[in-house]
Amino acid sequence: MDGFGIRIEGLRKRYGEGDTAITALKDVNMTVAPGEVVGLIGPSGSGKSTLLKCLGAVIEPTAGRMTLGQEIIYDNGWRLPDLRALRRDRIGFVFQAPYLIPFLDVTDNVALLPMLAGRPNGEARKRAGELLEALDVGHRAKAQPSQLSGGEQQRVAIARALANQPPVILADEPTAPLDSERALGVVRILNDMARQFRTAIIVVTHDEKIIPTFKRIYHIRDGQTFEEPGKAREAPI
Amino acid sequence: MISLAGRDILHSWSKFVFTGIGLGLLIGATLTMAGVYRGMVDDAKVLLNNSGADLWVVQQDTLGPYAESSSIHDDVYRSLLTLPGVARAANVTYLTMQVRRGQQDVRAMVVGFEAGQPGEPEYLVAGRQLTRSHYEAVADVKTGFRLGDRIRIRRHDYTVVGLTRRMVSSGGDPMVFIPLKDAQEAQFLKDNDAILNERARTAANPTLNRPGVPGLLDAIQASQTANRNVNAVLVQLAPGAAAEQVASAVKRWKHLQAYSRSEMEEILVAKLIATSARQIGMFLVILAVVSAAIVAFIIYTMTLGKIREIAVLKLIGTRNRTIAGMILQQAMGLGVIGFIVGKTVATLWAPYFPKYVLLEPGDALRGFLAVMLICTLASTLAIRAALRVDPATAIGG
Q1: Which terminus of chain A has fewer CB atoms gathered within 10 Å of its CB, N or C?
Q2: pLDDT tens digits, residue range B257-273?
Q3: Residues 64 to 83 of A: which have CB under 8 A from any B CB?
Q4: In percent, how much of chain A has pLDDT > 90?
Q5: What transmembrane ranges does the database entry give (chain B) (predicted)?
Q6: Residue environment code for A53-68, b if the CB has 16+ CB neighbours within 10 A, otherwise e
């Protein structure tokens, strides 16, 4: 997958019809390369969540085009018959809270996605073990989510997002509940993972602590995106 | 693929176990109600089996002797013995009453029979059969009597010389067997005051006390105090005789009612305990509805407690059928726990019920299938709630 991880062109989203219609996204354009981490910043009500939901294929845009790797997945309509499979296999999600499944141990939380994709349990757990080691939580593999610290839970959530080696990860305020040190740690991990797995990562955030760590930032305001260079142009943490 | 339902159950096992126990007690009560009905039917069949009769001859136009009262003369059996196909015939009386054991009352069905004839208890668990003509009794162990105990019936005391088991009336009252003559007296004989009063009334009646007819008053009074009635005649047929033909002859020539074994079973099961069966049926329906409501409520609240996780599962690509399967398996797991607990407690507490409770394997199997069906239906509410969860709720605000 060369070129870009995800490209969005002229994406629009309107809720409702007629006089009561609200246009949440007017003209969104974004490109994120494989291995790149970009920030998406904007005030409340600017359309961040709507954009993330469109990118995550949980709501349908009104118009525009989205390309994942070499494949157009949306062009004024979904091009793929199975959006569930798209979310499972080609898009990773990291949420504000880790939202780990409380009744699965750490390994199975990560292995669940490959299992859902039809991979054998042994292979899925091997993959989970490798990711947990890479994220430095391998020693908590058999623990229950409730036994982990907030930072450990978020690392497990990142491992889960990477489990099916998706070309894109959407991270929705992944550092919100963490202190500065842990927040920067999570961003460092996202950068490492992006480089290691050639994953395009979009981080939606309000967090002033981590904004300076992005090489590129997209501002979203009134449903439109504006790109600006980040402060960490050459040396991301 | 790992079992999400199994992991969730293991994770919150105490909630499942305690809910399962609660549900199990309800299922145990349901199984016991079914067992009570089966026990009533079985009691009725045991009653018929133990009588040793092929035909029951009773008063015309009655459903006696168990479902309705019946009174026929005690010499009828002699004429029945002359009918073709009749091998043996014997008088019996049945009277449900309170008998005295010391200072306590015991509800029992007093059966009067002739020793060695149909109606005699077939087997004893202790003691011997009646050998004397008066004042001996054989009692069912459920009466609480022991060998040598004295039973007070009306004005006389009877000594328990034998004990039997599973000899109960269709109403579940244990039986006490006494000689026929004693039973006739207990059933039909009036108390002394009533006899004196009756004699005075008869003597004061100029039609019955005619000075010109000596001996008339004595004869009438003797007939009033003597008792020549029994409730039924039990008939055993000769080998090869058809019950329907003999019954038809009894009806045609003796102006009595005769019931075959199958007809008597129909009377007992379909008529005598029909109301009780409907009552139990209503209880079963109510208990099933309550069980369904409990399972539905528990599974629904457990599902609502996992809405965020379900949203995440849907967002990361879990199929609806996987989520529905998880909830369904949890509901059925609860049903399995409940059924095991219910069957166990029903088996443990059944012997302590005053009436016979018969827990049949077939009923247990049907109960298990019903529990599974109820749990499946009860889970639909939670499944609908889970399937309505929007995966988008996992993202943003």
Answers
A1: C
A2: 999 999 999 998 888 88
A3: none
A4: 44
A5: 16-37, 280-302, 323-352, 364-387
A6: bbbbbbbebbebbbbb
Percent of chain A with pLDDT over 70: 95
- What does the DSSP 8-state code read for residue A214? -
Judge: A87–B11 Cβ closer than 8 Å, yes or no. Answer: no
Are A49 and A206 in contact, with CB atoms under 8 Å apart?
A: no
Q: Looking at chain B, how many residues does it have?
A: 397
Classify burial at B21, counting beta carbons within 10 Å of its beta carbon; exposed 0-12, middle 13-18, buried 19 or more.
middle
pLDDT on residue B302: 85
By a Cβ cutoff of 8 Å, what residues of chain B touch chain A?
A: 1-2, 4, 7-8, 10-12, 308-309, 312-319, 322, 390-392, 394-397
Answer yes or no: is A194 within a domain. yes
pLDDT (mean) for A129-134: 90
- Give the tokens for residue A72: 């157009």
Give the closest residue to A142 by CA, choosing from A151, A150, A132, A131: A132
Least confident of A73-77, A227-231, B41-45, B63-67: A227-231
Cβ A58–B1 below 8 Å, yes or no?
A: no
The H-assigned helical ranges of chain B are 4-11, 13-51, 76-81, 180-188, 192-203, 216-225, 243-254, 261-266, 274-304, 307-315, 320-349, 361-387
Our measurement of the distance from residue A69's CA atom to the centroid of its chain's CA atoms, rounded to an integer in Å, reads 15
Quote the distance between the C-alpha of residue A206 and its chain's center. 15
Residue A67 in any domain: the answer is no
Q: Extract the tokens encoding B130.
A: 């009646």
Please count the structural domains in chain A.
1
Tell me whether residue A3 is in a domain. Answer: no
In a domain, A165, yes or no: yes
* Closest residue by Cα to residue A34 from A172, A198, A162: A198
Contact criterion met (CB below 8 Å) for B22 and B347: no
Cα angle B218, B222, B225; round to 5: 140
Kindly report, residue by residue over A164-197, the tens digit of the pLDDT: 889 999 998 888 877 888 888 888 888 988 988 8
Residue B312 tokens, joined:
């995440």
Q: How far is CA B129 from the centre of its chain?
A: 26
Q: For helices B4-11 and B320-349, give the axis angle rounded to 10 degrees.
A: 50
DSSP state of B145: -
What domain range is A201 assigned to?
35-59+89-229
With beta carbons less than 8 A apart as the criterion, state whether B127 and B138 touch: yes
Residue ranges of chain B with per-residue pLDDT less than 50: none
Which among B7, B310, B315 is the top mutation candidate for probing chain A, defined by the most A β-carbons within 10 Å of its own β-carbon? B315
Find the length of chain A: 237
CATH number of the domain where residue A215 is located: 3.40.50.300
A40 is written with which tokens?
A: 């998406």
Give the chain B residue whose CA is nearest to the CA of A117. Answer: B317
Alpha-carbon distance of B138 to B146, in angstroms, equals 10
